[in-house]
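Q: Here's a chain of 330 amino acids. Please give me its 3D structure as tokens.
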Amino acid sequence: MASGSRFFQEVELPEQKSYGHGIRFPVVLTSKLITTKEKVLEALEEAIRDEKPWLESLLRERGVILFRGFPVITPSDFNQVVEAFGYPEAFYIGGRASRTQVVGRIYTANESPLDKRIPFHHEMTYVKNFPSKLFFFCEEEPGSGGQTPIVLSHIVYEKMKKKHPEFVAKLEEHGLTYTIVTSDEDQHSSFTGRGWKSVYHTDDKKVAEERAAKLGTKLEWMENGVKTITGPLPAIRWDKESQRKTWFNNLTGPVNGDAKIYDKGTYVDLGNGETVPNDAMEDCSNILEEECAIIPWKKGDVMFVNNLTVLHSRQPLLKPPRRILASLCK
């Protein structure tokens, strides 16, 4: 399919997942041009604007586009690439990861310790206003580890429905309720360690309650923080563009509902109050690991992710350095 582009050409990597009819996940694009770095970066931005409908159709078909081999060196370069697509920015209101603005609409991806794993998730499914698209950029290539695994959400849904049909039927009917205990201040040791003051961009509890309510979240104040309760929210989403049901939830990220110690962490329950079964949680985790594509980062990589159809995670960093930046779009 990429051969129809005037600028881009598709390449294959050994780490891609292969599906029927020659479909490979993710699609990896590089440039047909051989010229100076400055001209290639300018040409990339121009090609994105000119071939945006084609790139969007490719994203719908494959879920993720990895741009590799382009001279995207600095955060400002990355910002220009994101801006070339022309999508409105999705502001990080209600998000739980600690992030810092770098330049323009570019932020650090997650500031939790890099030796810690981040479970598979769709970005911000625990609030009503979630981004539809994500961009990641590798500014510093990891020495070892630190990959960002990705997996097609409809495949997870299909396999879970086959293995746990009754549980999936309940998910479709009742959705999930997310309970997150948040401290007053940021806790950088956790991948969901953002304090409520950062989450809601205020230190006024009444303002926080108002902003939370707009996200469909109820706040219950505690001695040293707050318990946020959101939902029930849909756990299975019908994607109109792909005409598929997707596993649109963060089920495997939180602590299992069987261990309800509501003084820290994140918990999920079915929307009707029932506990999520341990075996369903474990099988879902196994399916995610079996079906994901894990491509080692290369400096300059830009990964364009359809957040509506693809889950992502982070593997522990084994050998520094690693610096991945991100941008969220509506």
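Q: Can you summarize the key feature?
A: The mean pLDDT is 90.
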